[in-house]
Design a protein that fits this description.
- The chain has 7 helices and 3 strands, in the order H-E-E-H-H-E-H-H-H-H.
- By secondary structure, it is mainly alpha-helical.
- The chain has one domain (about 35-160).
- Strands 1-2-3 form a 3-stranded antiparallel beta sheet.
- Strand 1 and strand 2 (about 45-50) form a beta hairpin.
- The two termini are about 25 Å apart.
C-alpha cells in the first residue's frame, strides 16, 4: 500500500509507553481497520471488502482506458479499479453487518467468476459479472475512489487527460 511500509521505524526500538510506541500502536490499529465493506446493490447479503486504491493503480486504469473510443471505457475503468482494490467477496447472514469474510473468500481476480459460473478473463470482467448494472459498477467505484482519498473531480480529470 502506498508508502505505509516505509513508516515502520526501520527496526528502531521504541520504549514501552513512549511517544514512538504510542504512534506505532495507533498507526497499526488504524491500518488493521483500513478497509471498506460495500454491499453489492441489488444482491442482498453480498459484500465486497476493498482496500484503498493507490494513485499508481488509478493511473494504470486511466492509461488502459483513458481516451478510448469504446463506449464501455468508463465502466471498464471503474470495474478495473474495483478488481484492483478487492480483498474479499462473501455473503453475510441476513441482518448481520458485523460478519468478517472467511479466510478463503474469493476476490474478483481469483474465484468470483467461478463462483458465479461465468467465464471472465480478467478481474474487471468478474466485477461486471457480479454487479447487475453498469451504474452499480460506477457507483461502487466512485465510493471506493472517494474513500481512498481521491475526489471524483480529480479522478475524472485524470481519466479525461486534463
Amino acid at each position: 500500500m502506498g508508502g505505509a511500509e516505509d513508516l515502520t521505524g526501520g527496526g528502531m526500538p521504541a520504549a514501552p509507553g513512549s511517544l514512538l510506541a504510542d504512534l506505532r500502536a495507533r498507526r497499526d490499529a488504524a491500518l488493521a481497520k483500513l478497509y471498506l465493506d460495500l454491499p453489492v446493490r441489488r444482491l442482498p447479503g453480498v459484500v465486497v471488502r476493498f482496500r484503498p486504491v493507490t494513485s499508481a493503480e488509478l493511473l494504470r486504469a486511466v492509461e488502459a482506458f483513458g481516451g478510448s473510443e469504446d463506449p464501455d471505457a468508463q465502466v471498464n475503468h471503474d470495474a478495473t479499479l474495483l478488481a484492483m482494490g478487492c480483498v474479499a467477496v462473501w455473503t453475510r447472514p441476513d441482518g448481520d453487518d458485523s460478519s468478517e469474510p472467511p479466510a478463503n473468500a474469493p476476490t474478483f481476480a481469483d474465484g468470483v467468476a467461478e463462483a458465479l459460473g461465468i467465464t471472465a478473463k480478467t478481474g474487471a470482467e468478474a466485477v461486471r459479472g457480479l454487479y447487475l448494472t453498469d451504474g452499480d459498477v460506477s457507483a461502487a467505484a466512485k465510493r471506493l475512489q472517494v474513500w481512498s482519498g481521491f475526489t471524483i473531480a480529480e479522478a475524472d480529470e485524470v481519466f479525461q487527460g486534463n
